Amino acid sequence: MSSATPLNSLRDERALMNSLLELMQQEQRSLVAADIDMLTQLTERKTALVAQLSAGAARRHAALAAAGFAAGEEGMDAWLASAGDADAAALWRGLLDDTRAAKELNRLNGMLVNKQLAHTQGALNTLRPAAQSGNFYGPSGQTTTSTPSRRLVVG
After folding, report:
1. Looking at the whole model, is its pTM more than 0.85?
2. Would you list the domain boundaries of the chain?
């Protein structure tokens, strides 16, 4: 990576964000297909990308502070205004747009996860109706309404 400037950081962050968006789209396809093995792999990769994005934002904030601007989004706006660089401004707008798109994909993927979870819970509930209602078969083969217990003899 080249010297730490807000512009260099923007380039790096934008590339990482594009990778994250692609990964989240893969995640969505895997959620729809209920491909658990792929989801596990994607989650590990997504976690690493999010960590890299966080480090990139920290580098950008440090570069802004070193250039005499606030180390945050407002500092980025001020830096862009002072630089007058249309390409840098376009990169920044693109990064913000990509971040919003990632947030929306994350929301949709979360809804898919919840749908899968509800489906799985429903299937589990179907398999355990007797346990939920308290009806069990006793040693005689007759149903009982209480759970069988083990008695311990202490003596």
Report:
1. no
2. 6-127
